[in-house]
Each structure stands twice: as structure tokens, then as C-alpha cells.
Amino acid sequence: MIEVKNLKKIFQSGDQEIIALNDLSFSVPQGQFLTVTGKSGSGKSTLLYQLGLLDIPTSGEVYIDGTEATRQNEKDRTLSRLNDLGYIFQDYAILPSLTALENTMLPLLMQGYDKKEANEKAKKALDKVGLLDRMNNLPSALSGGQQQRVSIARAISHDPKIIFADEPTANLDSETSAHVIEAFVKLNQEGQTIIMVTHEEEYAKMAHRTITMADGNIVSDIMNKK
Amino acid sequence: MIEKKAQNSFSKNVSVGWFLARRELRRANVWTTSLIVLVMTLTFLNLIVVSGILVGLIQGSEDAQKKYAIGDIVISPFLNRASILQTPEVVKIVKTIPGYKNHAVRYTGGARVESNYRETIAPGEKRDGAGASVLGIDPIAEERFSGISKFVIRGSYLSPNDGDSILIGKNLLYEFTPIEAPGFQTLKNVEVGSRVKVTAGETEKEYFVKGIISSKVDEFDTSLVMIESEARHLLNRTDLDANTIAIQILPGTDPFQAQKFLLDSGVGDYARVQTADEAFPKFLKDIKETFRILGTVISGIGLVVASITIFIVIFVNAITRRRFIGILKGIGINKKAILYSYMYKATIYASLGIIFGMVLVFGLIKPYFAANPINFPFSDGILVATVPGAMSQAFILLITTMIAGYIPANIVIKQNTLSAILGR
Predict the structure, then answer these.
(1) Are A142 and A102 in contact (CB under 8 A)?
(2) Are residues B252 and B331 in the same domain?
(3) Residues in chain A whose beta carbon is closer than 8 A to a beta carbon of chain B?
(4) pLDDT tens digit string along B281-329?
């Protein structure tokens, strides 16, 4: 599903070059739940942004379903993000002026679904994360955990090929975090490919596979025992 | 990898843009929205009212001129003649105009009026006098035509037998026009009941001042108004040929048709036949055009202010929502859809401002000024505003606002997606 070849990301800070990703190569098969861990500044989020087509690597290639994604123009990258990828950000990143349902509907409307269809699909996604009863609430009326579940519903509403989650439990208490991780596990069991960045070992181990990073390098790549 | 189930077509961008804008506006702070709409309303009023009043200043003067002095059609002597030939015949034709309502026949000529003519003055001293026009009228017909008696601010109106009385225009009196310029004098110490001497050519006669006229119509305000037989006598006229025949036609009658009727009836052989618009002096038209340009310039400044206001509003809005714009782009929402949402917002602000402005202009301000004209020194100013004119101003404001909304939103939307999401 995803193939990464010699991926490199270098940031320029004055005269200094900071190597955020150092020649990484690996692949992620369809249906795998992969977690990426590492200390702060290890490059895990940077890796996620390159895989999720939110950033352009300095060199190397990312293939998604055999298509070289890194060389796409901005328009096609936006379209790929809309059709093939789903995102869950650390701080939920849902729009404050839209209700839970409207936030979830948004990618579907952009895909061209009519309002009724989008509404139905969004409701299904919210039901999956257990938030159907709060669908008409604005984010301000939802707890952090509920907002993160809206974010998950938005990410899965349009049936993406891969879900990217960037430390989705970072702002949540342990109980809520456990619910969110459970939601990911459930989604994965239904065949959803998930790549999640986390610094919490406990959650990392719940995935099929864990890549550990340090200073832009992969220091370990292990299959977790379930 | 890109499934074409999601074509980023124009209609999808438009509908997603509308989806976002509608909800953001609905859930925006009501006071902030009200303030922006108020600014847009004031801007629209500025566009319409400032130029409308400037033009209305002259329009008021023109309207008064038309209503009280020249009517809808005016017959006047050829430029090389002193009076309208065959006036009684012409009047007969005038009365047969389809849509005829009323007419007034007037006799005019130059004269000099003096007030202290009985006093002995020292050698070299000048008498208290002024140059004036004699205006001979039929008091009953003139009253029917212009309602001139309502302009008599002191004393009383003329009756058909007032052979020894005159009405004096306020511009001839020092009390109302305190000017002492070389070559231009006004009369001092003249009141109702005063006696004045009027000299026209070789003829001179004393008259009682029966009343003072103040009308904001020059034709009356600079004249010595007397009954027509007196004017003809004073001006040494031996025939009935008049200087002006002002004609009013019924509402809905086309003045050009009436003009054509007169010309076809042969009136053109005796005098000039003009519609009111043709008869207005060129300087008045020039002033009107000047004020219109001035109004347009002031309105233009208002438009720039409105653009800057919308620019700032949208820019601040977009900047504070920069992260959300990044997230929208991140989840695959097309840049154009986001851009349209901001343009919708700008357009809605402007549209609401225009709607409120239209209601205020045509429902309140224009009727108010029509009923209570502004008392300018030389005219009763009204607000000149037409629906087509206001619509074109509204269109300009709308386009300007859309551009003013587009530019700042585009600046923010163009920024790097990841930087926007991460807020760096």
C-alpha cells in the first residue's frame, strides 16, 4: 500500500542543515496498523507529514498504491488527501463553527456527494465512534475526547485508504485515550490501514507493528505480539 | 491513485464554499456582524446620499424654476427680437395643446428702481437705487400658474386693479442681500408701504411697495412684479406681445410631443419653443454636472474606505482562522472552495448593507427630503436618487467588496498548508 524509498527531509536553519529524516525506506501493507514512536524531535511527525502528503520531502519517494505521490502537483495532492487519506490531528482540528455532523460531512461534500448522501454517511461515521447522539453539537459543547472522536469520524467518513493520526491521545486523559485507541483498533480490525504517531509505548504496542525513530533514523522496526 | 469520484469542479467548490460561509455567518458574533453590516450600510448611503444631495441642490433649483417660472414648455422671443410675435394668436394655440394644463403670459424689461428719490442729496452723492427687472403679470393667471402669492413674505399679493402697486423681489433689498459691490446695489430702507420710483427708458412712475417676494426663483426675486398693463405702459409697449409664455402640461404628457404640437401649429414662426430642460441656462447644467462629478469623487473615496474595511475584516478573519484554513486544505478541501467562502461572506455583508441602505434611501431619506427640502440659500435641496442609479452603485459596491474579500483571503489561503496547520 505504502512504499517509502530513501526518504530524506532536511530543514535549513540559517547556515545549518537539520536532517529530520535520514534516508528512510520501508513499506506498509494494506490493513496494517503501524505506530511510529520516538522522543520529541526524532522525526516521527515529520515522517507522517511526508507520508500524508502534507509536506514535500527533500528527496526520496513515497508510493501509495504504486503511484509516486511526492511528485504530484498541489492540486493532485489535495485531491489525493481528499479521496485516499484521512487525518487525525493531535488537537482534534475540527472547525468550531460547524457541528459534529457538519464537520464530518465536509470531506464528503467536497467529494461531490449530495447533502442527503453526505448526511447519511457522516451519521454512520459518527455512529461508529459513538457520537451520533451529539451530532448537532458544536465543538464548544463537546469534551476533548468527544472532539477527537468527531475528528476520527471525519477522517473515516469518506472511506480513505489510509488514516494518519498524529499523537491523537496527547491531549486526552488516560480513560478517554483508551477509548480512542480502541476505536483505532476496531477500525483496523475492519481492514483500515492506520499509521499513528505516538510517544506512548502502551498504545504503540496495540498496533501490528512499531517503528521507533531517533534523530531522523529508524532505530527499530518490530512486529508486536498480540 | 487519484480516484476521479471527486472532480474538483466549479459547482462543488461553490457549494462547499457556501456551506462553510453560511454556517460561519450564522454562528458568528451577532454584534461583530451587525457592525460590519452597519459600515456597509453607511458606505452605501455615502455613495447615494452625498452625490444625491449635491445634485439635488441644483435639481431643487431646476425644479423650482420649472414649477414656478418656466413650466414644462416655454415660449420666448427669437434672439433677435424683443418679444413674442402675435402673442394673442400664440396663446390661443397654446390652449389647444393636448394635455394642456395652464399657462402664464409675462412681460419683462429692464428698469431702475430708487427709494430716496424725494430726498435732496449733495452733489456727487448717489441715490439709493438698484437695477431691476420689471415683471408684468396677470395676477389671477399667475397665481393659478405658479401660486406666486405664497412667496409674498411681507405685505400682500397684487390684485388685478393694483395699478400703483408692486411686489419687490428680496434680492433687490439690502435687508436680504447686503451687498455693496461696484455696479451692484440694493435698496436700503424699503419696506412694505414704502414708495419707490421705477424708471424704464424715458418712462418713470412711482409705486407703493405692496409686498416682498422671496421664492428662490430668480425670475421673481430680482424683479419688480406689477400687473401686466402697468408693465406694458412702463416698458412703452403698444402691442400685446409678451416676453414669456410659460406652459404647464398635465402629468404624463410628453413635453416633446407638446413642443412638436406647437411647432407644427406654426408657433415656431413667431417665437422660440423650448422644453424646460432645453431652456435651463447652461451654467446651471454645468454646475449640476460639476456637483455630480464632485459627488462621484466623494463617493469614490467612500468606496475605497469600504474596500479597505472589508479587506481588513476578511484579512483579520482569515488570519485568525489561518490554522483552520490549513486544516481544511489538509483534509482535501479545495483552495477555491475556501476562497469562495470568504467571498460569499464579503458579498453577504455588502448585500445586507445595500438592502438596508436601499430601504433607508427610498423608504425614509428620499421621501423625507421631498417633504422637507434642505433650505439652501438659493434652492430647496432634495435628494436625487433613482432606483437604476442606486442599483448601479450597489453593483459597483458589490464588485469592489468581492475583490476586497478575495485579495486578503487569497493571501492567507496561498500559504503553506503544513505551516498553517502547525501555526508557524
Answers:
(1) no
(2) no
(3) 49, 54-55, 64-67, 69, 75-76, 78-87, 89, 93, 95-98, 102, 106-107, 109-112, 138, 154-155
(4) 788 788 888 888 888 888 888 788 878 887 888 888 888 888 889 999 9
Q: How many domains does chain B have?
A: 2
Determine the structural domain holding residue A48 and report its residue range.
31-58+72-223
In a domain, B385, yes or no: yes
Which of B:9-48 have CB within 8 Å of A? 9, 12, 15-16, 19-20, 23-24, 27-28
pLDDT by residue (tens digit) across A79-98? 899 999 999 988 888 999 99
Instruction: Show the domain range for B30.
Output: 10-64+284-422
Same domain, B204 and B119: yes
**How many separate domains does chain A show?**
1
ipTM of the complex: 0.90
What is the pTM (predicted TM-score) of this model? 0.74
Please indicate whether, in this complex, the C-beta atoms of B23 and A102 are within 8 angstroms of each other: yes
In a domain, A155, yes or no: yes
Domain boundary among B210, B235, B270: B270
Closest Cα partner for B58 from B284, B389, B219, B217?
B284
Do B117 and B201 fall into the same domain? yes
Burial class (CB in 10 A: 0-12, 13-18, 19+), B181: exposed
Q: Which of A64, A65, A78 sits opposite B332 (nearest CB)?
A: A78
CA-based nearest residue to A153, from A125, A172, A132: A125
The pLDDT tens digits for B390-402 are 998 899 889 988 8
Q: How many residues does chain A have?
A: 226
A2 to chain B: closest CA residue? B1
Same structural domain for residues B32 and B181? no
Is the distance from CB of B68 to CB of B222 less than 8 angstroms?
A: no
CA atoms within 13 A on the CB side of A203: 28
Domain for residue A4, yes or no?
no
Mean pLDDT by 10 residues, chain B (424 residues): 52 93 91 90 87 84 88 93 93 95 95 84 78 94 94 94 94 86 80 92 92 90 94 91 95 94 94 92 82 83 81 84 90 93 92 95 93 82 88 89 88 88 81
What are B72's three cell numbers? Answer: 414644462
